[in-house]
Amino acid sequence: MPLTPSVTAVARVAYLSSAVVVDTPSEFSSYWKSLPQSSLHATALISCTAPCSPALIRLLPHLPELSNRPIVVHVAARGDLADALILRAAVPYFIHSSNAQQAHDNALLASRLARIEGKAVVHVFHVGEMDDEVEEVSEEKVKPFLFAEKHIRTPSKAVGRAQSPILSRPQSPIRRPYSPSPVRPYSPTPKYANGHANGLVNGLANGHSRKGSDVDGRHSPRPMTPTTPMFTVPVDPTTAGLLEGYESAALATLALVRRSQRALTQHAHTDPHTVIFGFCRTSLGFGIDGVAYVDVSLLSPLPSSRILGAIRPSVRHVIVLEQVEKWTTKWTPFFLDIVNVLQHRDPEDRPSVRSAYLGDTSGLQSEDVATFLEAISTSKPSSSYTKILSHLFADRLEISNSPSLVPFQGELATNPEFSLGRIRGALEERAELIKAVQELLHDSKLPPETHSLFSRWILVKDDFMRSAQIEGEIISALQSGIDHPVAARISSLREHFRVKSRWIIGSDAWSHDLGASGLHHAIASGLNLNVLILDTLPYTTRNTLDPSRRKHDIGLYAMNHGDVYVASVAVYSSYAQVLQALIEADKFDGPSVVLAYLPYTADDTATLDLLKETKLAVDSGYWPLYRWDPSKEAAGKEPFSLDSDAVKNDLQAFLDRQNHLSQLVQLVTSLGETVKAERKKRAQQAYAELLSGIDAPPLLILYASDGGAAEKKAKRLAGRAQARRLSTTIATMDTMDMMPAQRRHSDWCKPLAKLKYSDLDAKLAVLGGERFAELGLGDDQDADGPDTGYKAWEPLIWKALGVESFEVHEAEPEPITNEHIKAASSYLRGTIAEGLEDTSTGALAASDTQLTKFHGIYQQDDRDIREEREAQGVEPAYAFMIRVRLPGGVCTPAQWLAMDQIADEHGSGNFKLTTRQTFQFHGIIKKHLKPSIQAINRVLLDTLAACGDERSLLCDPIIIQTACQVYAFAKGVSEHLMPRTTAYHEIWLDKKLVGGEALKDFEPLYGEFYLPRKFKIAVAVPPTNDVDVFANDVGFIAIVNESGELAGFNVTAGGGMGVTHGNKKTYPRTGSVLGFVTPEQGTIVAEKIMLVQRDNGNRADRKNARLNPPVFIRSNIDDFGWQTGEDGKHHFTCFIENGRVQDEPGRDFKTALREIAKIHKGEFRLTANQHLIISNITTADYLISRLDNLDFTGLRLSSSACVAFPTCGLAMAESERYLPLLIDKVEKICEENGLRNDSIVMRMTGCPNGCARPYVAEVAFVGKAPGTYLMLLGGGYYGQRLNKIYRESVTEPEILAILRPMIKRYALERLDGERFGDFVIRAGYISPTTEGKAWYEGMGGEGPYREIVA
After folding, report:
1. Rounded CA gap, 691 and 577, in Å?
2. Are 81 and 324 in contact (CB under 8 A)?
3. pLDDT single digits (tens) 281-326
4. Are the beta carbons of 1317 and 1241 closer than 8 angstroms?
5. How many Cβ atoms from other residues are within 10 Å of residue 223's Cβ?
6. Would residue 350 show up in a list of annotated catalytic residues for this protein?
7. Any catalytic annotation for residue 1016?
8. How far is CA 1076 from the centre of its chain?
9. For residue 1074, what is the enclosing H or E element?
10. Mind spelling out the 3-state secondary structure of 980-1010?
11. d(CA 608, CA 209)
12. Nearest to 235 by CA among 162, 168, 302
């Protein structure tokens, strides 16, 4: 098929502006075949090209989901536009081009509009002729045009309503003066419309005459006077915003092509008596006196005020001329829109409105147009729904009680019970046909081609399109002869090869007696049939019926039956909903009842009356629009859909009003008592403060706290002091300037931070401090911890200050804990949404930061500049960390690219692969939180439960036969244990509950308190253990049977890494093996272990809240480099030091991985050691070879570190930034002793919380203060044994001094295959840790290597 200039121009624009082009077989296909598929352009736009055909109906159910995405659908039409017009109601923008040049320009406009506004655009244009001329824009100008900044007009004060005065030009809803252009710059020589109604040429018109007109419909205009009223067109904010977006794109297109793009373009007469609105290929350019032609380009959103402005006061007739021949109702949606716009005119000034369709325009003359203007014909509204059925289902439609059957079957043919019998018989015959075909297929002597043909039909027998394609081949085979006894029977039933859409059409008279009408029998039959019931009673005459004849609600009756599809529709309210309901009814396997509203009393009922009656009935709720699909309930979806916008809005307003009234009543009731109590409280407080200021001694309380315990005690002490009328000040130590003036700029304060408490006490005395109470000492190892010493010390303070006899009557408030915050959060909502709107700070409320952890978010600040900002008097540089939930660590290339883009657009330009096998972003400021999480969710990932109590589930990134089974198990466990709160979707994805507070969340597993501490799960597949399965609360160790299939898991429980420095009540623990479970039992076992922790864990101390193998595991590190799986596919494990994906000199990992993701067809698998596996590579791509750099020591390859400074708020020392520098020095010692390639597992964390799992490493360092670490030795190489504290405080020189002789001795004295962690135990450096409770036993080393521990 030759490409016309129109098609070529539109296809070229789609190609230049899109990242992806989706084509259905159409006029565009030959253009796409001539282009390389991989050379599309890097934009966010998707373009779809399709012909104007009935196949477009299949897009309809999907368009509402796609309407808010940057998509352009270019539809090429040849003649009738009816099929394309169906899409109009489902998309925000619907643009029409009437000629070739306009098609090119509107394609550009549509592409920019979709990209900038992020909404779907349908662009319909005509294929045109080969001699059409198009001036195309150059390629290099397209991309700047698409990405140019949007120009927004400044709105006027009139919001929500656009004035359209009759005597002057109208005002646009987007505040742009109307300025009609007589001729579009690119209009070609016009081809003219045919309007004859006498049969000489193809044309048809219908409509109605306005009241007061004469026989031919003409009317003398009302004289214009200075008091002629001004009318306004209501414009809702959504429509106004859409129109503003279109206007902005049109202005940008004008600047590019130098041709104006208008929603409406008026031609010819400026003071006409007749206006023709054209939605068709050509323009009527005849200079007929008194006739104006308006070319309509923008149909959605409809610029109502401009349409009203184009209909001048002199206009007596409006004709809507459309190239829509096979529309299924009396009036098209555009015609009804024109009628609706005219409702804003004075009734006495409204012109008549008629519709017409455009036929063959060849040889059309101005006389033909004049004749057409005199011709009017009508059609019956009663056929509206049957036409829709014919349009949707074409030749497979069967109306079982059609009047056309009466001549053949008698008067009973229209009886519903008789029709039901006909349908039952037809369905039984089709069942018999299926049985006969199956019998035929069991014949082993059947020729292979015949067997294949009938087998294909059996597979697609319920698919109307595919079964119809095979039908012709089957009938030909039957006619050629098939030697089988059932062949004749099959031939006699051949009419049932094609799936029929069977309908019974009745009236609302059936609703008076549901039993006698036969409707009950149809509903209860269980047959696959459809019933369409027309209700023609106008809303305004609903009360004139005989009250003794009660009308039943058929829809409610059918829904109560439980297995019936039910819909209530109104074609003159929502045409798209009618189509969707009829398609769903036909698809439903069972009885369907569609209630259709058509309020007419006679076939000549005026358009306006139909429209008014329908609007009144729908908006009042008399005729609600809804759909009920029981099949959705079985799939876990909501079966009921309310489609009446007015009813939905009224319901929401009612719920909002009820909520407000309830709050107001409660407020007014308690207002008097509250005010009275508050006044009394303030008076007492003011009096107490006055007394305190007169004679109370001042008290300054300073504290330094890492974990928060000292801070809580300091604040409690301050509260008790204030209750004793002391003038109290409380602050952190680093905020107070205690230096003498001459020493304020010295480095005296630096050693102060490292002083022990006794030295600090002495130093304060040296500075001149006067002691008024003895030093108090508390011991964490006492029965009640440091409170034993504190309780004895506090009374000394009150005695020294002379307030020991003061009676404190007011009870101290209970300290607010995480448990209180969670219980009061309304299932993790808190005030997060309000905090995101607060632009006065970059932080969230303290209580909300505890809740955002459950949403995968931690609040942090840049600790490198914290002191500098504090000195400047500004708040810390707050930012947030986001962690993605990625069970098993598997993601697609598209998801990797999205993570890469999020890091660049919202984060710090890099991202981290964490020890929880997922992505982590740092440096995201508050206003970027929501866009970041929405971007994550757009690629089908989320952050819910990535932090907080229930964490992401780890799974070995295996590449063996059982990979799919183990990964599916891991993902299933993760989904099962997910929190069920909807707070995440409400806050971050703007998914609002319809009922507001009327619907409450429910957590079936966690309850309102959730868990007492974080709960981690891991799945290991021997012989590797890179997930450190024993370090998790629950571990599953896969057991594979002899055939290589997954047999089940050994289950471990009770592992954990949380520790507090100096508190021997806290210790790490490896999990204990409980027993064996099958894959089916695993999910329930994980749930039950979690419930035990929920109900029995220590909620007072989260660090102490966790629970108290016959397999071969060889290591807990990754196997780097290339591997080949059992399926022949390749896998490459990359070394990414500490998981930081960024570009560095010589190691441009981020760029390289981005390029790989663009071409990779497999998966990316993240490891729990912070590395990456590029998996399922069919061919070894050269790009991956750039990452094939494993020239690192075994020590470095086995190392890992947490983030720590500058972002982690808990860090006490460096970790990720320091460990590579320390390894530089330690690996030199290894190389000196011939251990370059020997693996020694070394890990480092900045605090004792154990994010990098340091307590199961062979060598580990845990931060205590800047530059100072706890040193641990003796962990198991594959994570099976805890290490032990070797030195409580070491710096870098001490670390190197300890490791140098130890590594040398290891190189000389190790046994064959002996690991470093095992060697230091055998050599006597440290004793083994047999269980978590014994972790402190033997700390400090053994024998000559022992350090004296306080």
Report:
1. 74
2. yes
3. 766 656 677 788 888 899 888 888 888 888 888 888 888 888 887 7
4. yes
5. 7
6. no
7. yes
8. 38
9. strand 1072-1077
10. CCCHHHHHHHCCCCCCHHHCCCCCCCCCCCC
11. 11
12. 162
Is 951 catalytic? The answer is yes
Q: Which helix (H) or strand (E) holds 234?
A: strand 230-234
> At a CB cut-off of 8 Å and minimum separation 6, what does 714 contact?
701, 702, 703, 705, 730
Report the distance separating Cα 880 and Cα 921, nearest Å: 8
Cα 792 from Cα 1237, distance rounded (Å): 57
Q: What are phi and psi of 891, to 5 degrees?
A: -140, 160
Q: Read off the pLDDT of each residue in 1211-1227 and give the average, rounded to a whole number.
A: 92
For tokens 């992806």, what's the residue?
20
C-alpha–C-alpha distance, residues 1241 and 1277, integer Å = 7
Q: Diameter of the chain by CA atoms? A: 121
Amino acid at 550: R
Say what the pLDDT of residue 166 is.
31
Q: Which one of 720, 829, 883, 1253 is the catalytic residue? A: 883
Spell out the long-range contacts of 646-649 with Cβ–Cβ below 8 A and sequence spacing 24 or more.
646/618, 646/619, 646/620, 646/621, 647/619, 647/621, 648/994
Burial class (CB in 10 A: 0-12, 13-18, 19+), 1146: exposed
Which tokens in the block code for residue 1226?
């330690």
Give the Cα separation of 372 and 657 in Å (integer): 55
Burial letters 558-569, b for 16+ CB under 10 A, else e: bbebeebbbbbb
The first and second tokens of residue 420, run together, are 């039901």
Residue 1014 designated active-site? yes
Q: Which of 206, 183, 214 is nearest to 372 (CA)?
A: 206
Catalytic residue flag (residue 280): no
pTM score: 0.49
Q: Choose the catalytic residue: 1251, 1253, 1281, 1284.
A: 1251
According to DSSP, the β-strands at 274-279 and 204-207 are unpaired
Query: Quick check: 146 and 45 in contact, CB under 8 A?
Result: yes
Cα–Cα distance for residue pair 315/299, rounded to 1 Å: 22
CA torsion through residues 1179, 1181, 1187, 1191, sign:
positive
| Alpha carbons 1193 and 715: distance in angstroms, whole number | 50
The single residue of 12, 829, 1016, 1196 carrying the catalytic annotation is 1016
**H-helix or E-strand spanning residue 33:** helix 29-33
698 is written with which tokens?
């001042």
- Report DSSP state, residue 127: -
Active-site residue flag, 1134: no
- Which tens digit of pLDDT belongs to each residue from 1103-1154? 444 443 445 677 778 888 888 877 778 888 888 988 899 988 777 889 889 9
What amino acid occupies position 174? I
> Helix/strand/coil (H, E, C) string of 150-190?
CCCCCCCCCCCEEEEECCCCCECCCCCECCCCCCCCCCCCC
pLDDT tens digits for 154-163? 443 333 333 3
Going from the C-alpha of 184 to that of each of 257, 260, 267, 307, 1209, the distances in angstroms are 13, 8, 9, 18, 64
What string of DSSP letters covers 41-78?
-SSS-EEEEEESSGGGGGGGGGHHHHTTS-EEEEEEES
3-state secondary structure of 201: coil
Of 1208, 1243, 1253, 1281, the catalytic one is 1208
Query: Which residue in this structure is represented by tokens 């890492």?
Result: 706
Which residues contact residue 899 at a Cβ distance below 8 angstroms, ignoring those fewer than 6 apart? 884, 891, 911, 919, 936
Under a CB-based contact definition with an 8 Å cutoff, are residues 882 and 930 in contact? no
883 is catalytic: yes
Scored b (16 or more CB within 10 A) or e, 776-812 reads eebeeeeeebbebebeebbeebbeebebeeeeeeeee
Mean pLDDT, range 850-875, rounded to an integer: 88
Q: CA-to-CA distance for 273 and 1192, rounded, in angstroms?
A: 87
Asked if 701 contacts 728 with a C-beta cutoff of 8 angstroms, the reply is: yes
